[in-house]
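Entry 0007
Protein: AB hydrolase-1 domain-containing protein
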Amino acid sequence: MASVLVVLVLAAASLVKKAKASPTGPPGPDGRQCVQLEVPVTVNTKAIHWLQKKVDSTVDAVDWVDDMTTWTSPNTTSRILGQITVNETFKISGQLCVPAKGSRSDILQLATHGVGFDKRYWDVEIKSSQYSYVDAALAEGYSIFTYDRIGTGSSSKPDAYDVVSTGVQVEVLRQLTTLARSGKLVSSSKKVGGASNLSNYKPAKIVQVGHSLGSVIIIGLLSDDGASSDGAILTGFLYNSQIGSASVGPWGFEFAKENDPKKFGDRRSGYIVQATKSNTQLVFLKKGTFEPALLDYAWQIRQPGSVGEFISLATVLGHPAPAFKGPVQFFIGEKDYGFCGGDCNNTYDVTALKKLYPASSALSVHLQPGTGHGLTLSTNATEGYKVIFDFLHESKL
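Output (structure tokens):
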């Protein structure tokens, strides 16, 4: 009976979300105007070619985890075999939402999700008034663009070893940022649904918002091209003394296509996904700060990651962003298991953080009380959003 109720709740939430999308053009009943897009993004860049094991089965996936975590295994640097050229045009599935009335609608929040999800991470469909970051941003008057990173959701799913890597994801974000700032994000894309009156939307400012790997990707963009962005909210990530404890082990990875052939039948070699709902809880949630229905939801919308993303994650970290002048906020769950080993208290140095962003107009660190890694899925999500918005307002954004 419980499983039937969960299915009914998810189905009802899906119907509510369809109504929110306002497919005929006028604002929906909550004032949101959204357009769903297929954005062609061409990337021409150098990517690292890595030495790593192939993953074509769940047996391989477990062996890959073993190889990545055994203390005598080669370190990241020694696994670099050289460089390859990535010159591809990817289809990026995105959604642009603009508030019907909003004093900050000319400020675009460009949101990049992390591993384990797609853009739905930002727009939770259960109790959306409490959990949806998209709804919260629109209610605060901001416009927001969410998208599926390559390898996830409805976006392109290229080679999982060298192409779906952190560096290439940085280039995708750079191109999306350029398109948005030029006002050509909608006009250069294929409209697949939603409002018809947003073709000329051009933001005056862009704030990058990330979660986990999405925050790491933003860090890479800011260090390469600090002038591209007017502000950055880095959730689910924090430079700290326990960051080295992060491991792929707790994910319990399986080969995605084998884990769920129906859901992940389009994933090729090298795509891996958390094996069980318990793995999802361990990585993303903390007992006492999540509702069971939200764990069910997180499991239902889970997405595979690529082995290339994990091995390349560290390559963009630790580089300063001297040209970035906007405000930056590190926002992480107090009990984040992945990046702080379960407790972020007394693990970070604000002075060291400021050295990475020497020209930043403001820098802050916020530990969200009691929560784990999945901030939009935790019961105090709304309070967390207020912290983010207050920081932006204080920074004149």
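Curator remark: The chain has one domain: 14-394. The two ends are 47 Å apart (CA to CA).
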